[in-house]
């Protein structure tokens, strides 16, 4: 199903050029955000996705959250991304931005859904730290499951030394590296 969706996205690109992961993300966000910049409300054409005038922004700075999920990504006009810098949307735009009031920006965020909307609130970074605690617990559980799977496979495989288990961080890093 995802492959078919990706093929449909690729048909929208002028010349049906091959898309890398970032290009595909831009197309998906373009559809999700109904062809408008999340911060400015500016209409974004398909051509703008590939001419350098729009970028993908981490709504909550990736350096602080390590969150690369779709709910933490926004398709935005390049100048808005540069003006936001490594700040939360509340820090950057709570006083308004380019004639847009913060409630207008919040309205667009709310249309993206709850997974995006909370990231625009004043306490968003504090909430993301709660998510960090969950991720740590999740990684601990994953480590335990990996150890148990390794132990099990070691008893049923002919070559117990040929089985390894990678922890969640290594797996996540490889997944990120390979796209």
Tag the structure with descriptive keywords.
179 residues, mainly alpha, two-stranded antiparallel ribbon, 10 helices
Summarize the SSE layout with pairings.
Blueprint: H1 2-11, H2 21-32, H3 46-50, E1 54-58, H4 62-65, E2 73-77, H5 78-84, H6 89-93, H7 102-112, H8 114-117, H9 124-156, H10 168-178
Antiparallel strand pairs: 1-2
Overview of this structure, please?
- The chain is mainly alpha-helical and 179 residues long.
- The protein has ten helices and two strands, in the order H-H-H-E-H-E-H-H-H-H-H-H.
- A two-stranded antiparallel sheet has the order 1-2.
- The longest helix is centred in the last third of the chain and has 33 residues, at 124-156.
- The model has no long low-confidence stretch (mean pLDDT 85).
Summarize the structure.
Helix content is 57%, strand content 6%. The protein is mainly α and 179 residues long.
Q: Helix tally?
A: 10
> Distance between the terminal alpha carbons, to the nearest Å?
18 Å
- The helix/strand class is mainly alpha
> Which oligomeric state applies?
single chain
- Helical percentage: 55-70%
pLDDT under 50 segments (min length 5)?
none
Strand order of the largest sheet: 1-2
Order of helices and strands: HHHEHEHHHHHH
What proportion strand?
5-15%
């Amino acid at each position: 199903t995802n492959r078919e969706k990706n093929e449909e996205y690729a048909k929208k690109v002028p010349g049906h050029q091959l898309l890398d992961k970032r290009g595909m993300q831009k197309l998906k966000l373009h559809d999700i955000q109904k062809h408008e910049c999340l911060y400015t409300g500016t209409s974004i054409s398909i051509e703008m996705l590939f001419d350098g005038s729009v970028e993908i922004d981490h709504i909550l700075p990736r350096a602080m959250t390590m969150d690369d999920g779709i709910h933490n990504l926004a398709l935005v006009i390049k100048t808005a991304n540069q003006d936001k810098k490594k700040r939360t949307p509340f820090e950057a735009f709570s006083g308004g931005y380019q004639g847009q009031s913060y409630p207008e920006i919040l309205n667009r965020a709310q249309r993206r859904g709850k997974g995006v909307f909370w990231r625009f609130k004043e306490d968003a970074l504090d909430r993301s730290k709660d998510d960090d605690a969950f991720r740590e617990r999740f990684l601990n559980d994953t480590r335990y499951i990996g150890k148990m799977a390794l132990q099990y496979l070691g008893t049923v495989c002919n070559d117990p030394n040929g089985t390894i288990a990678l922890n969640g961080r290594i797996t996540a890093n490889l997944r990120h590296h390979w796209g």
